[in-house]
């Protein structure tokens, strides 16, 4: 009886807890995502919308609003998920509270019945008579064991009532907090939706004002992509030259187009790789305005764009910092373009493009966080964008997966 009681009690306590843990973990993940998006929104407002609109070209302003709208929609989606999950948790907890109240009442009723039964048996005198009336020693021993088990069971019932009462109290407190959290999330979402409506109206007004010039803007976007393709080819060439030069210097040749690493370079590359997801940002403040890979233009969805890295919008006159120890592999300035710095970290290369000033030269040893230049600010578009890339040999990598979350 004692063993079965404990098993049932443990099952009753563990099953609801496992479900709550799973829901709690999901809520924590969603809250982390929401806080990340809120930080991004704060950065967007500070870096893209702190100046007067007249200081930006129409196409840049539309891109910025589109970017902000997408982030705002993501914030609303995450907040909705949180509110919906809270609704399910609240319903689950309400059901659990009802069940606990029933269990608690049953325990109390059972305990009360035992108390009454114990009182009617005249306590110790009845117990003694119960033992003395045994027909033999074996029967007396069994009756003694029964008396002890009955006494222990009474204690266990009392403890079970305490446990269930405490569990019920904790769930009630948790339920109240969940209801407050849901109320807060719903209000925040209401505000976010109002702000989104305003941003969408602003975008519509801007799009209407430049409707007659959309073909001109589309051609500008295509021209930007052509310039990006030209830069890609130059960077591919520079990396191929760096690989060939490094391998030649080491006295070895490779037809694979990859660096042949010295023990020191292998160690540096391993250290770089082990810091994936933890590397510092190349600027103190920034938001990823253009993501890695293929996508659609934020202004004209019919135009496809392809980014070999990410474009980080930052503040005017922002310093550019090396994200890891390495050596300046090359510095390149394209015709009608801004300077690019390539830093080698074993068989990894980080690339910093669209600079206005350079503080390093080819062959310099660089330390993590060292300022290597400044980001160029375009007075025509009103943008301050750093084109940042990461390669392993000649393979393009997504920089966002390597940088730490801000």
Automatic annotation (TrEMBL):
<dbReference type="GO" id="GO:0016787">
    <property type="term" value="F:hydrolase activity"/>
</dbReference>
<protein>
    <submittedName>
        <fullName>Murein hydrolase activator EnvC family protein</fullName>
    </submittedName>
</protein>
<feature type="coiled-coil region">
    <location>
        <begin position="161"/>
        <end position="248"/>
    </location>
</feature>
<keyword id="KW-0175">Coiled coil</keyword>
<keyword id="KW-0732">Signal</keyword>
<dbReference type="InterPro" id="IPR016047">
    <property type="entry name" value="M23ase_b-sheet_dom"/>
</dbReference>
<dbReference type="InterPro" id="IPR050570">
    <property type="entry name" value="Cell_wall_metabolism_enzyme"/>
</dbReference>
<dbReference type="Pfam" id="PF01551">
    <property type="entry name" value="Peptidase_M23"/>
</dbReference>
<keyword id="KW-0378">Hydrolase</keyword>
<dbReference type="InterPro" id="IPR011055">
    <property type="entry name" value="Dup_hybrid_motif"/>
</dbReference>
<feature type="coiled-coil region">
    <location>
        <begin position="76"/>
        <end position="110"/>
    </location>
</feature>
<feature type="domain" description="M23ase beta-sheet core">
    <location>
        <begin position="306"/>
        <end position="399"/>
    </location>
</feature>
């Amino acid at each position: 009886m004692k063993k079965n009681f404990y098993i049932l009690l443990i099952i009753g306590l563990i099953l609801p807890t496992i479900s709550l843990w799973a829901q709690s973990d999901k809520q924590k993940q969603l809250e982390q995502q929401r806080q990340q998006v809120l930080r991004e929104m704060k950065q967007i407002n500070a870096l893209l919308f702190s100046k007067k609109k007249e200081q930006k070209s129409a196409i840049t302003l539309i891109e910025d609003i589109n970017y902000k709208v997408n982030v705002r929609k993501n914030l609303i989606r995450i907040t909705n998920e949180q509110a919906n999950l809270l609704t399910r948790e609240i319903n689950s907890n309400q059901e659990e509270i009802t069940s606990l109240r029933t269990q608690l009442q049953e325990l109390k009723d059972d305990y009360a019945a035992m108390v009454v039964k114990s009182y009617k048996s005249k306590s110790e005198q009845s117990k003694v008579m119960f033992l003395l009336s045994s027909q033999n020693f074996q029967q007396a021993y069994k009756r003694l064991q029964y008396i002890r088990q009955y006494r222990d069971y009474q204690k266990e019932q009392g403890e079970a009532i305490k446990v269930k009462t405490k569990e019920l109290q904790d769930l009630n407190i948790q339920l109240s907090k969940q209801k407050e959290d849901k109320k807060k999330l719903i209000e925040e979402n209401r505000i976010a939706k109002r702000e989104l409506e305003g941003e969408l109206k602003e975008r519509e007004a801007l799009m209407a004002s430049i409707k007659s010039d959309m073909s001109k803007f589309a051609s500008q976007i295509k021209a930007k992509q052509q310039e990006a393709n030209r830069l890609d080819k130059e960077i591919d060439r520079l990396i191929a030259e760096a690989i060939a030069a490094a391998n030649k210097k080491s006295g070895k040749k490779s037809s694979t187009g990859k660096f042949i690493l010295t023990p020191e370079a292998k160690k540096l590359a391993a250290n770089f790789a082990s810091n994936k997801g933890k590397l510092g940002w190349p600027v103190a403040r920034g938001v990823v305005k253009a993501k890695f890979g293929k996508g659609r233009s934020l202004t004209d969805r019919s135009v496809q764009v392809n980014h070999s890295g990410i474009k980080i919008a930052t503040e005017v006159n922002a310093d550019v910092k090396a994200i890891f120890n390495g050596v300046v592999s090359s510095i390149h300035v394209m015709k009608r373009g801004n300077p690019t710095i390539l830093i080698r970290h074993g068989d990894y290369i980080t690339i910093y493009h669209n600079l206005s000033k350079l503080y390093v030269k080819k062959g310099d040893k660089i330390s993590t966080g060292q300022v290597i230049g400044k980001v160029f600010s375009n007075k025509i578009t009103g943008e301050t964008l750093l084109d940042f890339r990461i390669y392993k040999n000649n393979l393009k990598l997504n920089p966002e997966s390597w940088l730490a979350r801000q």
